[in-house]
Model the fold of this input.
Amino acid sequence: MSPASPLYIIPVLPSSDIKRDLDWYEKYTGFKYVFGDEGYAGLQREGHEIHLQFHHGNEEDPIHGSVIKFFVKDIRPYVDEFVERGTIKPEKLQENTPWGTHEFGFYDLNNNAIFIVQDV
Done:
């Protein structure tokens, strides 16, 4: 790895209500608040980090949904957990997709798509 190589990436997702979304992420995904305020906040889970940034949702400051994918070694514990949390229904798991994955996805309260993916 060269000295100029990136160390990591942190996705920043749009939010129309940071406080509401922090509660939602903790309940439905297990990501926990680590810093921030009503304009910008960071959450972490198992070495992964995402940030939320407030947007007014108007013409000058629109909210456009994003897509993020978290790749895991074994998807089954995540499926079980997210079903138990009420985030997804068991049938959301797509196994042996044509592109070589097991995966499931869902939307947060701002229409950001979040996928958990296992390469097979």
About this structure: The domain at 12-119 is CATH 3.10.180.10 (2,3-Dihydroxybiphenyl 1,2-Dioxygenase; domain 1). The chain has one domain: 12-119. The first strand starts at residue 12 and ends at 15.
